[in-house]
Amino acid sequence: MNIPCHKQLTSGSLFNKEIIADFNGGQITSDAGSLLLRDIDNQHGITSGIAAVLHDPRRPDRIRHDLDTMLKQRIFSIAPGREDANDATFLRRDPAP
User: Per-residue pLDDT for 68 more than 70?
Assistant: First the structure.
């Protein structure tokens, strides 16, 4: 039995917009909500404000990542449910910018 393989399905219109389902895959992500969080943070300076009031006892000549960057990484890991933050290296290759 041969089963047809459709690369694209077209449906009727919804609100005068044609609906097309494309099955090419491409690069996809399940973490796009983090992009929204990043944009909100950039607009309102939430993590920068928090970093500004925290004391960082580390020696400046030995710092690779500043406090603001570390806060963003931690907060943006916890928000989508990655509490242990061990996925940061994996997410570095995620297609979401």
Answer: yes
Query: Crossing angle, helix 46-53 and helix 33-44, to 10 degrees?
Result: 60
In a domain, 84, yes or no: yes
pTM of the model: 0.59
Domain count, the chain: 1
Neighbouring residues of 46: CB distance < 8 A, sequence distance ≥ 6: 40
DSSP assignment string, 64-87: SS-HHHHHHHHHHHHTTT-TT-TT
Asked whether residue 73 is domain-assigned, the answer is yes
Residue 20 lies in a domain: no
Domain range for residue 84? 32-97
Q: To which H or E segment does residue 38 belong?
A: helix 33-44
Are 41 and 47 contacting, i.e. CB atoms less than 8 angstroms apart? yes
